[in-house]
Amino acid sequence: MKRTDVIKESAPDIRTFRPADSRPF
After folding, report:
1. For residue 25, is pLDDT > 60?
2. Helix (H), strand (E) at residue 17
């Protein structure tokens, strides 16, 4: 589950756009 950490740091806005549980990309 390291991908979630990378995305959270790379684009915290994406978390609001889509939950990490449902794959941001």
Report:
1. no
2. helix 12-17
Tracing tokens 């950490």 back to the chain, one arrives at 5
Q: In the prediction, which pLDDT does 17 show?
A: 61
Given a cut of 60, whether residue 3 has pLDDT beyond it is yes
25 token code pair: 């990309």
How far are the Cα atoms of 9, 13, 20, 22 from residue 17, in angstroms, in the given order?
A: 14, 7, 10, 11
Q: Domain span at residue 11?
A: 1-25
pTM of the model: 0.15
Per the structure, how many domains does the chain have? 1
Residue pair 15/9 in contact by the 8 Å Cβ criterion:
no
